[in-house]
Amino acid sequence: MFDNNDFKGYRNCLGFHSQNAFKEFLGAKDIQPCIDFNDLNALKKRLIEIFSAINNIYCFKYSEHELEYFFKKSIEQVFSKIVDTHIIHKLNNQGRRPEEVCFSWMRGFLVAEFFKDFIACLFNTQKETIKFFGGDNFDSIESFKRSPKADFLLDDHLLLEIQSGFQGINDIKQHKVLEAQRRLEIDKIPTIVVHFDLFNG
After folding, report:
1. What is the mean pLDDT of residues 88-109?
2. φ/ψ of residue 102, rounded to 5
3. Which residue has the higher pLDDT, 43 or 141?
4. pLDDT (0 to 100) of residue 165
5. What percent of the chain stands above pLDDT 70?
6. To 10 degrees, the CA torsion angle through 71, 76, 77, 83?
7. Distance CA 138, CA 23 (A)
8. Buried b / exposed e across 164-179, counting CB within 10 Å, b at 16+?
């Protein structure tokens, strides 16, 4: 009759001293899928096209120089960090490709950054008082995670969760709602969702 030592011996003969390593090997989980950089660059170009088109009718229109700087800072530098820190490999959502998830996430990130002047006007405040509050940190895989925290803190007394979309459906994740409730109870700071509908304007 076989026992655990026999199974362990079998794995050792194959060069595996860890059950997990052998499971990863058998399931090919140790092989990272290659990122399609041609696709990623095409998606990055599409983001530039989207926000260039919106800028043409935006009430707080960026000058050509400002828009170029915005794209360099908010697209080129962020994409580079996501690739250099290997965060791109961790981006997955319901089986979608990392490139697709990156594009979707970047579109949301850019909406929050692009419309800061409008947000300041909407809340009758200065753009400089809108502080980044969310948990999106691109410095390493460990520090980049889906955070329940709102995107911005406004004048130290209001949290803003920025949402965007083009499908006509705007769902708010449960962990975001629970975090907003917690902030209200503990810090006495309310949270407001600001939704930008890219399809209908």
Report:
1. 83
2. -60, -45
3. 43
4. 73
5. 89
6. 150
7. 31
8. bbeeeeeeeeeebeeb
The answer on pLDDT for 185 being more than 70 is: yes
Written as one letter, the residue type at 47 is L
Structural domain boundaries of the chain? Answer: 1-31, 33-114, 126-201
pLDDT at 51: 95
The pLDDT of residue 146: 64
**Is pLDDT above 70 for 64?**
yes
92 Cβ neighbours under 8 A, 6+ residues apart: 98, 101
Amino acid at site 114: F
Number of H helices, E strands in the chain: 8, 4
* Residue 83: closest CA among 138, 143, 39: 138
Backbone angles phi, psi at 33, to 5 degrees: -65, 145
What amino acid is encoded at 161 in this protein? E
Taking the model in full, what pTM does it have?
Answer: 0.77
φ and ψ at 96, to 5 degrees?
A: -75, 155
Q: Residue 158's CB: how many other CB atoms inside 10 A?
A: 16
The pLDDT of 127-154, averaged and rounded, is: 74
Beta strands in the chain (DSSP E): 130-132, 152-154, 158-165, 191-197
Instruction: Please give the backbone phi and psi of residue 3, each rounded to the nearest 5 degrees, phi first.
Output: -130, -175
Q: What are phi and psi of 88, to 5 degrees?
A: -55, -35
Which letter does DSSP use for residue 62 in this model?
P
